[in-house]
Amino acid sequence: MIWILIALIASLTLVLLVAPFLRRTQEKRADGLGAFASQLEELNRDRAMEMISADEARTAEAEIKRRWLNASDQGDVENEETISRSFRTIGVTVCAAAVMAAVVIYLQIGNAHLIGAQPPQMAEVPEDVQGVLNELEALSASLIENPQNPEGWYVLGQAYMAMGRYGEAAIAFNNVIDQVEPTAGLFSSLGRAYVFMENGILGPPAREAFIRALELDPADVMARFFLAEARLQDGDEARAIQEWQALMESLPEGSEARVMVETRLEILETENR
Amino acid sequence: MTRFQTFIISLIAALVITMPVLAAPGPDETLEDPQLEARAMELYGQLRCVVCQSQAIGYSDAPLAGDMRFVVRERLLAGDSDAEVLDYMQDRYGDYVLMMPPLQANTIFLWALPFLLLLVGGAIAFAYVRRQSAQMETAFSAEEDAQIEALMREEGRE
Amino acid sequence: MIAELGQFLLILAFLVALLQSGLIFLGLRTGDTAVFGFARAGAIAQFVLVGAAFACLTWLFAVSDFSVLVVADNSHSEKPFIYKLTGVWGNHEGSMLLWCLMLTGYTGVLAWTANGIAPRLITLTFAVQSMITAAFTAFLLFTSNPFARLWPAPADGNDLNPLLQDPGLASHPPMLYAGYVGFSITFSFAVAALIEGRADARWARIVRPWALAAWTFLTIGILLGASWAYFELGWGGWWAWDPVENASLMPWLAGTAFIHSLRVMEKRDTLKAWTILLALMAFPLSLVGTFLVRSVIITSVHAFAVYPERGVFILAILAVVVGGALALYGWRANCLKPTGVFSEISRESSLVVNNLVLAAACALVFFGTFYPLFVTTVSDETLTIGAPFYNATFNPLVGTLLILVPISGMLAWKRAKPGPLLRQLAPAAIAMLAAGIIAFALADHDRLAGAMGTALAVWIAVGLLIDLKSRLKLFDIPLAASLARARNLPLGIWGMIVAHFGVGILVLAITGVSAWKTESRSFMQPGDSLTMGQYEIVLEGVSRVDRDNFIAEEGLFHVYYGERDLGSLAAERRFYPVRGMSTTESAVQGSALRDVYITIGEPVATRGWPVHVYIYPLAFWLWVGGAIISLGGALSIADRGRRSLLSRKPAAEQVQVAE
Amino acid sequence: MRLLAFLPLALFAAMAIYFAMGLREDPSVLPSQLVDEALPDFDLPPIEGYQLGLSDDDLHGEVSLVNYFGSWCPPCLIEHPMLMQISRSGVVPIYGIDWKDEPGAGARWLERHGNPYVRIGDDQSGRLAIEFGLTGAPETFVVDREGRVRYRHIGIITEEDWEETLRPLVLDLQSQ
Predict the structure, then answer these.
(1) Which pLDDT band holds residue C65 (cuts at 50, 70, 90)?
(2) Which residues span the domain enclosing D162?
(3) Residue A125 phi/psi, 5° resolution?
(4) Cα B72 from chain centroid?
(5) Which domain holds residue B27?
(6) What is the pLDDT of residue C163?
(7) Whether residue B57 is found in the same domain as residue B28
(8) What is the domain extent for residue C455?
(9) What is the pTM of this model?
(10) Helix spans in A126-236 (H)
(11) Is residue D86 part of a domain?
């Protein structure tokens, strides 16, 4: 379907662009000299309305006419009809090539394979999405009433993370941390909430959370991963790469975390290229 | 598009707007003497809030801006003149605390610029107007007259 | 599906623009006339393609397709529908797409209406426009792709910045952009004229409506921005001289100078090189406005560090656009030989002064905005350039220029006689003096500034009325004859008088708002009242209001003036939970004479709510004055619409009749 | 006249060079007025739960660091381990000023994360901060034997800052 539409759009555009090359004669073209005629007309009206003195009008008229004359001297060449075979051939070829190039670029940066695919995350959500949302609303309402419920906050935090409501997720994780003996995992979740909230920028709160996570568990993967990202954002690329590589080597081959680090390093490499 | 890129790419809103602030100073920051209060309000507009980039302390509710307003009132009550208050702040924070840059070596260009432009531009423009107004237009020759007649007739027929 | 379609449309638009900018030059070199038709077809194709891409993005926002990154980042399924749509340009990528849509839109309209224009000139103009379009669509595609996908998709979006959920602000960027982008057309025409090595009255007539359109949109955009700051931000002002505002003022000042000098060029075939230079500057200043100030350098160095490719891209575009245009200017400007001459006292001379001062004012704002960065670059010093600087420099500079407003329109072209003019304007001078003295005597503070502002406003207004009276010969001939003259007066003249009258009103309003404002602040509990001169403001109650996507604390106030009851009004403090942001909604009780402007803050235990009350005399006239100025611009555009460039025949006939 | 037409291009070129240079500068970095000046006179009370306050007299006679912090300030927490490390190394004494903290909050914070400071003054009103020209926390001042401020460090002290800037400066001042 998308390919049919793309083909249609591409060919329509091509037809529109190429049409002028195929036409033999061109429409009658203007030289814009009417501007002077209409200036004279304005002048006559001003004179009729006694806006300017007769003397002024006379010299103004002379000036306009002289400019008209000058302009008409220069304009003559333009009205001749010329046809250049080679240019027309080049024109048609280049237009066709450009439209092809559009398809090629689309193949590079477009995501045609996503059409019709179900977003993976959607599949995990039960059919009655609204029902889940309502449950979450109820949970958050009850937590506001009775905040001493770390498990509840944790569930809410996870749910908000999945929904992309990172600000609220951060609040929920903070509440868990206040209520139980914090673990590295909790701080690391909180850190991620902050990072996502800031669209990937590691601000002070995110850094603090990851540092706390590392204090509790020096091997925490997420904390190490993002603190390396922080290095990168501070401009210390060498150090970031070093830390990522160290992290990667500590992870089992093929594990999800390792793939994540590998991907990150690949992205960095392509960006640097 | 990888998972990581998706959250790393983000918005710099093309419409970054100065954050809204509740009109500072607060009601508890009023000086008894209305004349001093008027001077204080004027000074709040002359001093920059050092934590909020180009915003005066009179329009910022940042805590540090509040502290700076407090110092302004303290100096006024101590009998300082407006200039002394500004000097006091400038001594501590440097030139950038003043919303109006002082006239000194590194701002001379900025202050002189409008005058300079008007002067130089004015001189050029004046010279130009004088020179070109000196040449009077030549008369319209009979030959040119005939040409224009022809041209206009052609226009009319079209 | 729609996202992918939009992606393809955008890519195709980019390639068409790229191809066009190259092929046109080739075609003009070979002299094949097919190139003229091709240029127009390409312009229309670009517009249709970008328009369709924009429609796709709008659709994605409308249906909340969170598999598209910008939608997920900037929308939310529960947001009011209208703000889902305005959310399209409430973010970097979408607003850039809107920018491109406007750019191609202008080009498309030009293609539609280009019949009377000399073919080489218009074709070159399309080539330059296409280059600009190619640069910006490339910027979109390769650094800020609006159709980037988010996979897996989140179940809900990240909401739109609550500050942008406001009708005023939703319409503010499109207007501003329409203004900024409009100057691309005049820029392209100027470059085309330089390549041709020729520009005369024809050129000026063609360009004038475009310049006026851009200028009018920009005026409206700035006005909407100011009113948004006034009503929404709650800091009690409408103009703060911050970099974002300065950015819109710079192209406006350049554009104002441009439309004035364009008039000289059209009428008198002189100041040509200068007019072209202004056309070349207005568009880059617009670019500086949108990009450097808003997103790259001034506001946030951090942003530049995170997205260096965007900053570098924009700087490269700017360098090529400005550097290329100015190099061409240096090379070709001398081909633009003026033919008209004028004396020292003439309308031309007064417009030269106008241009000189406006250019100086524009440079002043430019340096005021960028000088701190400059100082930091060359030394370790840091400077702040804020409102007091502009008040001390910009205001007197432009204020002095405004004295010329009524004079300029009454001066004759070429050579004016100052004697009769001075006699004619004597009543205006007397009115000015009287108004200044009265204002000085009545005011209780800021007397001098208030008196000067009032005097200037009265001088402009009365001077213009005298001008109009003499044009209509009002009271000198029968009224019916005067009315006939009014009908025959070209709309361009009406536009000028109306716009200048708006300037007078604006001056008066600015004087009122800045010189005579009073303010008071206090903690209030429900039932408390606050007295300001004759005004009494009572806080009747504070209530919590839950709305769809925000929670508001609403303070209900009642205003009395002496014994008179002026009614009640509500000020709000809103909290948007999804973004964790709060905003204020000020309450304004407006009338022609003054606004009572109230904001309410966060309550302090035991002391109540902090309430700020401002009385702004004449604030209403800020918007009226601005609207009248825009109306003047619109009238002048309509002038060109009435006698279109196509209608050569009737014009010629009339000339013959006159002979 | 011919050359005049190139004037706009020349101006633009100058401007472009300036922008290219300006890009590398961060306009939010603010300079300090206090450098090479004597410390302001002050005498701060101790924070709640501590005996010793801080006055400018305490800073005479020995090279020292003065660190502004607050329990409410997340970057201070990030900086804290570095301060602990400096304190343990014994190279230079660190004096703390607790900025605009609730009574007791500073002490609790130090209890939880460790106390690197020799003495701590309580600047609860934030009045002294203005004398220091403070723009935020944390900020650290290097003070020489005569009680003059020799260097001001804005923001978190990283290990690199310490090793490459602060430590050499401190050692240099101590050897004078």
Answers:
(1) confident
(2) 32-175
(3) -75, 130
(4) 24
(5) 3-97
(6) 59
(7) yes
(8) 417-516+621-627
(9) 0.83
(10) 129-145, 150-163, 166-179, 184-197, 204-216, 221-233
(11) yes
Same domain? C497 vs C605? no
From chain C, the residues in CB contact with B101 under 8 A are 371, 383-385, 389
Report how many domains make up chain C: 4
Question: Which neighbouring-strand residues pair with C551?
Answer: C546, C575
Question: Furthest-apart CA pair in chain D: how many Å?
Answer: 79
| Alpha-carbon torsion (A213, A219, A223, A224), positive or negative | positive
Number of structural domains chain B divides into = 2
Better-scored residue on pLDDT, C301 or C92: C92
Assess whether pLDDT exceeds 90 at residue C376.
Answer: no
Dump pLDDT digits (tens) for C113-167: 887 788 889 999 999 999 999 999 999 999 889 998 877 777 777 665 665 666 7
DSSP assignment of C211-277 equals: HHHHHHHHHHHHHHHHHHIIIII-SS-S----HHHHHHHHHHHHHHHHHHHHHHHHHHS-SHHHHHH
Contacts within 8 Å (CB) and 24+ apart, A219-224: A219/A250, A220/A184, A220/A185, A220/A187, A220/A188, A221/A247, A221/A251, A221/A257, A222/A188, A222/A189, A222/A191, A222/A192, A223/A184, A223/A187, A223/A188, A223/A191
Residues B34 and B75 in one domain: yes
Name the residue with tokens 């819109």.
C248
Would you say residue D1 lies in a domain? no
Distance from CA of D77 to the nearest CA of C (A): 22
In a domain, B103, yes or no: no
Contacts of C11 (CB under 8 A, 6+ apart): A102, A105, A106, A109, A110, C141
Q: Is there a domain that residue C172 lies in? A: no
Let me know if residue D113 belongs to a domain: yes
- The Cα of B78 is separated from the nearest Cα of chain C by a number of Å equal to 24
For residue C410, is it within any domain?
Answer: no
The CA distance from D87 to D81, in Å, is 10
Q: How far is A196 from chain B (nearest CA, A)?
A: 6
Q: Say yes or no: C206 and C305 in one domain.
A: yes
**B88 with B12, same domain?**
yes
Query: For residue C652, is it within any domain?
Result: no
How is D62-117 classified by DSSP, letter by letter?
S-EEEEEE-TT-HHHHHHHHHHHHHHHHTSS-EEEEEES--TTHHHHHHHHH----
Where residue D82 sits, what CATH number does that domain have? 3.40.30.10
Size of interface B-C (CB pairs under 8 A): 207
Q: Is residue D121 part of a domain?
A: yes
Contacts of D154-160 spanning 24+ positions with Cβ under 8 A = D154/D29, D154/D30, D155/D75, D156/D75, D156/D78, D156/D79, D156/D82, D157/D79, D157/D82, D157/D83, D157/D86, D158/D82, D159/D82
Inter-chain CB pairs, B–D, below 8 Å = 42
Question: pLDDT, tens digit, for every residue of C230-273?
Answer: 887 767 678 888 887 888 999 999 999 999 999 999 988 889 99
Whether A39 contacts chain B with CB within 8 A: no
Chain B, 78 to 137: residues with Cβ < 8 Å from chain A are 137
Q: State how far the Cα of C624 lies from the Cα of C37, in Å rounded to an integer.
A: 44
Number of structural domains (chain D) is: 1
Residues B120 and B82 in one domain: no
- Bridge-based pairing of strands C587-590 and C535-546 is unpaired
Q: Domain end: B97, B126, B142, which one?
A: B97
* Residues B14 and B82 placed together within one structural domain of the fold: yes
**In chain A, which residues have their Cβ closer than 8 Å to the Cβ of B155?**
33-34, 37
Q: Is residue C170 part of a domain?
A: no
**Could you tell me if C6 and C76 lie in one domain?**
yes
Using the predicted structure, report yes or no on whether residue A129 has a pLDDT greater than 60.
no
Query: What is the largest distance, in Å, between two alpha-carbon atoms of chain A?
Result: 97
Judge: B94–D125 Cβ closer than 8 Å, yes or no: no
